[in-house]
Amino acid sequence: MDFTGEDMANKLKDNDNSFHVEGVNGTNLKKQVEERCRRAQADNTSFALMILNINKVERVKDILNHPLADELIIKIDQRLRDYLGNGKIIWCLGCKFVAILSGLGTVKKYDEVAKDIVALFSRPFRVGAYELYVTVNMGISVYPEDGRDGDTLLERANLALLCAKDADNNKYSFYSYAMDFDGYKQLTLLKDIKDAIGQDQMELCFQPIVNLKNLELLSAEAVVCWEHPSLGMMMPYEFMPLAEKTGVVKVLFNWMLEQVCRAYKGWQGKGLPPIKVSIGYSNMNFLEQGFIQNIKNVADMVGLKPDFLIIEITEDILIHYPETAVFRIKNLHALGIQVAVKGFGAGISSLAYLNSFAIDFLKLDPLFIRNISSDNTGLVIAQHTINLARDLRVKLVAEGIESWNQLSHLRKLNCYAGQGELYGEPLNKKSFRKVLARKRCKPVRINDSKVEERQRRQYFRIRFIQLLEADMTALRNHEKAADIGNTKVVIRDIGLGGLRFNSDIKIPIKRDLILQFKTELLGQNITLYGRPVWWEEMSKGIYEYGLEFTIDENERTALAKLLNQVQIRMRNNINFADGRFISISPERYFEIRRS
């Protein structure tokens, strides 16, 4: 049997649920990179450290055999050496290769070599009777720009590799400043997620879904939170994509389903009101053979009928796998399980496909809720979707309700139900039992529409004509860094209560996340601390955040004196720029930083 070209590529793709990036940290490798750093420093030269990850090799092992996979690695090694030449240092570590290139001088020349290396993988590798196609991703760090020691260069090349794998197959990335903050966190999670369940770090939580008119608790969405030993509590959106990439998602959702069933069984034993519980499955899980039988088996094991469940799926399933979706939804209904479409409205073909499926619930994408009070487009789409759901006799749930203003608009539009931070963060099992016992769930935030003006007047605020550059890092507390690096941001305004800033990094809004800002103003180095309380996307990849200070009164008094001086200077000089100010837009600033 001879797999060639597209046949082999498709076979590998069908079986590919493996993705794992580990730090390349062999003792011998570290020593040699350190030695190369010392030589480069002495010679005043540069070099590039390249980490290549060869994709699909594990699948070759599974489909064919280990000797053929080993021979494939040898063929890849030989092709790399033929191109790079004997003068270049190459290590082979399983499915990874590490190369050091020196003497090229400029990043542009290293970039040209990286393009050539990727091109090497456009041709198949002849292994025995097979022609095998594999892909590559590559992360690159450059001495001395990205680090002056081996540990730093290896770490940053790994961060760049992670970024390249996020982009697509056959992509490479050079390390950039933005990877410190976001990339190191992702690398840490990627390394730790496989052991998280066994080490009892995962916690089942429930987010209430509430009747917006009378506050009745209608159902709950089950979510898994991860109490990471060094990064703290992680919400699903922070690690679930990594669970899919590593293949852990199947084990994770089986654990989650069993925990949900056992929690529901416990509620029954205590005589608590019966409600529906929704679980948002990944596309990979939903399309997997035996998906429905597995749900039935777990429910049977716990001693329950599965008819209390709502299975949430994405629009992508309906659009790209319509026949499978129809079949699965029909079989779920046969078990009494209802189906909801989450993120509704974000897909391009929502209305065209909706009529073909027996959907029980639509969950309106938070995108249309976020600016419903200020964006007429979002308001119109929300109104149209609510009317559509009513006409189709499908119940609609608004996701991501964060404020009383949003709730007020949704009530006026006669939206049936909703969920979001206005009603609280996801609750652990003990806390949710109290809400379930009452069968009602009130908003946990005060009515911001009544206090918003008072809050605006509480502290004066200085809006800078130019943007103030700052270094931002995340802390576990005010003294200790959270080991997820730092990044540059630009501050738009500062008051005694907080500041507003822009970043090209997506930052979670969490009460236990403390951010530290270091900048210069009026010749003084200042350090400010606070927690992010809101965000919005200004433009593609550029975000705006509101920060609430966590400083004491002495610090606030010192800040007031400084801001008062700034205000006086700004009144006297419209071009005031005594600080780390920049005179370009946020979009242009971050574009330059990334280049």
Topology:
Elements: H1 5-14, H2 27-43, E1 47-55, H3 57-63, H4 66-84, E2 89-93, E3 96-102, H5 107-120, E4 125-127, E5 130-132, E6 135-143, H6 150-167, E7 171-174, H7 178-196, E8 202-211, E9 217-228, E10 232-234, H8 236-246, H9 249-269, E11 276-280, H10 283-287, H11 291-302, E12 309-314, H12 315-320, H13 322-334, E13 338-344, H14 350-354, E14 361-364, H15 366-370, H16 376-391, E15 395-398, H17 404-412, E16 417-418, E17 427-428, H18 429-438, H19 448-458, E18 461-475, E19 481-495, E20 498-503, E21 514-521, E22 524-539, E23 542-549, H20 553-572, E24 581-582, H21 586-594
Parallel strand pairs: 6-7, 9-11, 11-12, 12-13, 13-14, 14-15, 15-16
Antiparallel strand pairs: 1-3, 1-6, 2-3, 4-5, 8-9, 8-16, 8-17, 9-10, 18-19, 18-21, 18-24, 19-20, 20-23, 21-22, 22-23
Helix pairs in contact: 2-6, 3-4, 6-7, 7-8, 9-11
* DSSP summary, beta strand count: 24
Regions with pLDDT < 50 over 5+ consecutive residues?
1-25, 449-457, 477-483
Fraction of residues in H or I helices = 40-55%
Q: Output the CATH topology of the largest domain.
A: TIM Barrel
Rg estimate, integer Å:
27 Å
| CATH class annotation of the largest domain | Alpha Beta
The number of domains is 3
| Estimated structural class | alpha+beta
General shape: globular
- Number of H/I helices: 21
CATH architecture of the largest domain: Alpha-Beta Barrel
- First-residue to last-residue Cα separation: 47 Å
Averaged pLDDT: 83
**What is the CATH homologous superfamily assignment of the largest domain?**
EAL domain
Which strand order does the major sheet show?
8-9-11-12-13-14-15-16
Strand content: 25-35%
Query: Sheet with the most strands?
Result: 8 strands, mixed, barrel
